């Protein structure tokens, strides 16, 4: 390791920035004190010491917020604790170094803007924390990680195992970036398994049964499920729908309400407008589907089980209604670009360079297609024939 006499502000400012990685420069007169220079030019003061046979690196602060003089004084305080047989990290080496505390900190600092934050938190709390409760972050081994993932796979949840794998990999990489760990125990752990893309969609007969069964759920879930069928939208896009988002015969979702983060317009067919017209408005509430007026509906799992019982259909997910709508639109002759626009997809035919230069939003085409789909669904519900194939969709 490169070393120098006692560091000065001039010396720290003059340290070369590496082209990659990071370089530690130690202060010869203050054992264990070093300044780390990253390839991004960040300078960080660290104090390295050994306690209970373990080598520990404690971050003291960033330069120039912490000057050389302040770093030297901090070293004196930490070194005095070490000589007195105490842990120089103090409270920082207590709860803040156990896996759960670091996990909570990672959620707060790295995942706050993640639209899947709730799912990430829930998966780790359910599948990981019970097995690593009280375990130090530095004590988590590669074997521990594999054991947790294998346990999820053995329970039959390969997709969930892959989600947990991704979350743990990112969290431990974050720990390395912030000098909480030297290496990640997930660095060479492979993804638990391959996920088979779901192909399930409801047949016309099944769709008719679900539509009919939705009536037995009553409000607000019955109309909610029917609107999911008619729009092909994601569960929360409709479940958290607000009256203020409905205008000019369409649902207008802002970027913070969509999975892709981009605004999305969903034209309402006549059938969809009739459903919304039948929904009661709770005074002072902007939510369309709500029981209390204060929050949107919840309890999806229990409601879905009731719907399964009423419809007598097995092995289908709420998300399959989107695939059912897309498949139905295809049968009705809807162009692929229009279907993807209805679903709010930004990849596929709308991805890459095409998405950059092709800015047409297909609003008129989406309205025609959803009107035809709505007519098809209503014909099924009323015992008639399937809807007519689109013949006047604007040429793409």
The assigned CATH architecture of the largest domain is: Orthogonal Bundle
Write down the CATH class of the largest domain.
Mainly Alpha
What's the average pLDDT? 86
- How are the strands of the biggest sheet laid out side by side? 1-2-3-4-5
Residue runs with pLDDT of under 50 for 5 or more positions:
91-95, 348-357, 391-396
Number of strands: 8
User: How much β-strand is present in the residues?
Assistant: 5-15%
> How many structural domains are formed by the residues?
3
The SS-based structural class is alpha+beta
Radius of gyration: 29 Å
Number of helices: 16
Q: Summarize the biggest pleated sheet.
A: 5 strands, mixed
In whole angstroms, the N-to-C terminal distance is 64 Å
CATH superfamily annotation of the largest domain: Intergrase catalytic core
Tell me the series of helices and strands, N- to C-terminal: EHEEEEHHHHHHHHHEEEHHHHHH
**Helix coverage percent:** 40-55%
Approximate shape: elongated
Stated plainly, the CATH topology of the largest domain is called hpI Integrase, Chain A
